[in-house]
Amino acid sequence: DAVERGQYRHYMQKEIFEQPRAVADTLEARIHAHGVLPNVFGVGGDEVLATVRGLHIVACGTSYHAGLVAKYWIESHARLPVSVEVASEYRYRDVVVPPDTLFVAISQSGETADTLAALREARRRGYRGTLAVCNVPESSLVREADLKLMTRAGPEIGVASTKAFTTQLTALALLTLRLAGLNGIDADRYAALCAELMHLPRAIDDALALEPAIAELAARFVPRQHALFLGRGVHYPVALEGALKLKEISYIHAEAYPAGELKHGPLALVDESMPVVAVAPSGPLLEKLKSNLQEVRARGGELFVFADTRAGMDETPGTGALIRVDAGGDFIAPAVFTIPLQLLAYHVAVLRGTDVDQPRNLAKSVTVE
Ligand code: G6P
């Protein structure tokens, strides 16, 4: 055990630091400067993808959050409609499947009971095809889907998923680019997105250097009962994943909200005892997010803002902290901003003395309904 963990105290920490390698492996021989290589989704994959007019994405837990990010990406770059749903809901819903819809199941293990059942249900529902995004090549999900894109995260031991998530985002970014390429994206824009994606391992590596700073601010969360995570747009799922990480391993009750919803409820909870974590990348929504944060500050909430180095976020946010993250570009930013939130959850849990790798009541793979 200690040998496998090497210099790291927990598997989760080791797996967080393995992300540059895992993401690079997931990109290996699948993308180059001219674009995504043909048929990386399996034989005949491009033929199917070329005819796809929409996507239904289904998953559980962290994998579901990866699917939510993909929705923003695919809609904006490939201009195809995408719906994302948790597998336990999808499988029992009377789903309407428009013609030429691709069904995508995302799962680290490929054995999650609800996700597998959803795939089996989907096969009866008449999709254009089914695609598994999965980390275990010999899993049931991979065996049963028409197309597959393997994440190459390697074995993930920590129950709280980290490198599986960022490699899922990587795989879904490849899917986004392939679909965008097949749907007439502008060539320059396509090349720029490919270059960004190829930079992701480096960008994650840079974000990992934030660990000492984050370990220090983690102490501020230790006595807390609750925390609120805010994000907007493609960073709303990043906030959801950050909140999930914190609740899974530190047992602090954490909720994520799209920042624009703050005034429709959660603002009532904000006072001096409520830390608010905000994901604040640069972009058109930043000004709106700033005014959301102003509302938190005005009510005495302790703000922890993760801001893009490129963003105009200069002032320290009241009582909390401002942490600068080099996002490496708007496209890959969700994967990069995930890193400090993983580190935050990890260090809060360590300080609270929980069983980081095996949180109470949770299982790595949920193979029963
Ligand atoms: C469990 C794990 C989570 C994981 C979820 C889905 O709840 O604790 O970390 O995200 O299952 O697992 P999957 O293997 O389908 O991605």
Question: What does this entry show, briefly?
Answer:
The chain is of the alpha/beta class. The protein has helices at 2-5, 11-17, 19-27, 45-51, 61-77, 87-90, 113-125, 140-144, 163-182, 187-208, 211-218, 236-250, 286-298, 333-352; strands at residues 31-32, 35-36, 54-59, 82-86, 101-107, 129-134, 147-150, 226-231, 253-258, 275-280, 302-308, 321-325.
Strand fraction equals: 15-25%
How many beta-strand elements? 12
Helical fraction: 40-55%
Structural class: alpha/beta
Strand order, sheet with most strands:
4-3-5-6-7
Q: Which shape, going by the Cα principal axes?
A: globular
Order of helices and strands: HHHEEHEHEHEHEHEHHHEHEEHEEH
Low-confidence stretches: none
Rounded radius of gyration (Å): 20 Å
* Termini gap: 31 Å
Number of DSSP helices? 14
Mean pLDDT: 94
Bound molecules: 6-O-phosphono-alpha-D-glucopyranose
- Sheet of most strands: 5 strands, parallel
What does this structure look like?
With 369 residues, the chain is of the alpha/beta class. The chain has helices at 2-5, 11-17, 19-27, 45-51, 61-77, 87-90, 113-125, 140-144, 163-182, 187-208, 211-218, 236-250, 286-298, 333-352; strands at residues 31-32, 35-36, 54-59, 82-86, 101-107, 129-134, 147-150, 226-231, 253-258, 275-280, 302-308, 321-325. A 5-stranded parallel beta sheet has the order 4-3-5-6-7, with helices on both faces. Strand 10 (275-280), helix 13 (286-298) and strand 11 form a beta-alpha-beta unit. The mean pLDDT is 94. The structure holds 6-O-phosphono-alpha-D-glucopyranose (G6P). Residues 60-63, 107-109, 112, 115, 159, 161, 362, 364-366 line the site of 6-O-phosphono-alpha-D-glucopyranose.
